[in-house]
## 1
Amino acid sequence: MRATVGDRLVVEGRKVDDGRREGEVVEVHGQDGAPPYLVRWSDGHEGLTFPGPDAHVVPRQR
């Protein structure tokens, strides 16, 4: 997985009742765009995130 600042991180729910989480990549801490990422989630919280297999990156529109 690779991301740049401004990309969107989308984490799909693992169960039927789990909702999708979306956030903006604020910082990239890995080499060459690799995780971990500091993400500002849609609810306003920020956190250092190590995305799992249920996540994908949506590149920002340039």
## 2
Amino acid sequence: MAPPAPLRLEIDGGPATADGLRHLALVNYGHLTVMQVRSRRTRGLELHVARLDAANRELFGTGLDGELVRERIRHALGDDIEDATIRLVVFQPWDADDVSVLVIVRPPGGMPAAPQTLRTVGYQRPVAHIKHVGAFGQIHFGRAAGRAGFDDALLTGPDGVISETSIANIGFFDGASVVWPDAPLLEGITMQLLERTLAERGLPSRRRTVRVGDLASFDTAFVGNSGGVAPVGRVDDLTLPVDPGLVKTLTEAYESVPWDLI
């Protein structure tokens, strides 16, 4: 499904022109973050800023000022947009010494409440720890899963080692703790917020290798991204149990995270 049409696009605080977008159209190199904004606030703002700064240092050799990031988002929201989905992309045109910041403002979104269905595919994102542009593989497999009647693709490596979905982190509950895959993946903002908040509520998280063959051993599986948290009800032909109590705990933990003023 195509994303909603943008309400506004800006590059470096001004309207996004064809000239300004030319580099992104021709060169798939850059990094990004995606956030939900309500009343001009977002959850985990410091984590978004840290993600952008770290990725910028790795890709372009320099940090990215957090106040600049906030200013670009505020400017794109203007005085008329309170709630939105923000996609912020950082890239460096060939003829520029500094990076440029593209802010795409779309209508607000969320995670479906119904249990999600996932189709396993043998694919892992390159440079998986960075949320980067150039996502042909994950888009391709995500769309193929949709055509086959699934909500998303579950990315796996050799020996069926699970990493993430095409658009979300996946976690599991083993009866005592939340288990996150120990594999190449993006540590998403929602994943980080859940780890922190669940620990405060006495529910620890840990990393371990999880294979497709292990799925039946877990009490519940769930996915999380900027839209929120949802249980997983099926992977391929395997129906997974959904623990309503755990789903409630996850949802309440995420919704308890304060909204930071942008």
## 3
Amino acid sequence: MAGGVRSGAGGNGDADANTADDAALDSDAGLRATAGAYADLIRVPNLFTAPPDVLLGASLVAADADSALPRSISVTSVAGLAVASVLLYAGGTTLNDAFDAPVDARERPERPIPSGRIPRQTAFALGVGLLLVAVGVAFAVAGVPAAVAAGLVAVAIGCYDGLLKGTAAGFLTMGATRGLNVVLGTTAAGAAVLELPPVALAVPAIVIVYIAAVTFMAARETDGGNRGAVTVAAVGSVAAVGGLAWYLAAVDPAPGAAGVALAFAVAFCWWVGRPLRAAYADPIPATVGPAVGACVLGLILFDAAVAAAAGIGWGIAAGAFLVPAAGLSRVFDVT
């Protein structure tokens, strides 16, 4: 009799344990699903395209041999500004989806907000919070000039996401967020951007043109047969390569650095050229989407090519971000 009681108690214990295990598994699955939704919202692969902009900006100061600015640039400041740029990007993509929720409900119902995985109001609050924290981080690591630059990026993000998207001004504003991100990198050496020569100041402008062209194509990603949008992105890519060549000729880097810059430039042409050609040949969402993603990630290679003019280390440090970006792009959406 006693043995039977013990056996029954053990059975109930096993059932309770199984229930607890199932609940724990359900909880873990829920946490993973929530984490995946937020990773999708902020477009995790794209976050790795932001720090190379900062490294590029800092390299513009390092490459300016005629400047009276100090030649040593704080690694801590560059790293902190890179973190700020990641937060700015995450805030921008979050607000982008929050504003686009009604459109995504029709065109991309699988996105985190229209699918119900993340409330729209939560996305708005998160996006604004990330932008504010980014400005605070920039101020903490590099002072007022950095905070001003980060603030300008945040304003440009807000204007694009909330007011100007889909317009000519909107494309340029989106490009400006990236150009200003490069300027943010120059503040690692104080108010460096005010001391840079015209050839260096032209680099953020080149980035603006390239990203504006890519944004124009992205805005028509879901349209069919829009070969003109692909052409605009291709022209923007060619302009970026031309600007890079002009910058390298003006700076005249050491042979080793020039070789690394050339290698990254060739990689950039290959990286964006193949998907753009495929999209031009058959401009449907299935080809244009990957072309947009390739052009976004390709900015890393462009940044690395320009940064290499200041030294091989600068180029490699910027280019290394392509590895996690490309790897994560296989799991999460880029566009």
## 4
Amino acid sequence: MNTLNAQAPRVLAILRIVTGLLFLQHGTQKILGFPASEYGQPPIASLMGIGGILELVGGILIILGLFTRPVAFILSGMMAYAYWFMHAPSNFLPILNGGELAIMYCFAFLYFVFAGPGAWSLDSKMKSGSAVTA
């Protein structure tokens, strides 16, 4: 068990990086048009456009592990909003309203608020001068 516990900061970092990479794709799709979406690109000043900016910038910051806790707090709230105001009105059950991903992102980001960035983050580097911390 001690061997597994010792790897927790690295596995947390991997979870953070993969979550950020997946989340970033939503932002690149909305803001940069890549990959192309069947819905096209929303206007920047729209709710979806602002969400795209948060996904793009927030995804990059989460990947880098920079300002992880405050960024994760904002993104968790954004995903809670996305679920309750975009998905839940059509049907409460996530499997029926397409909101599973919003819920997963919400709770993954909420976890990062409390757990921090893990190893291999700019937050850790700024705090201790080393990119790998336990």
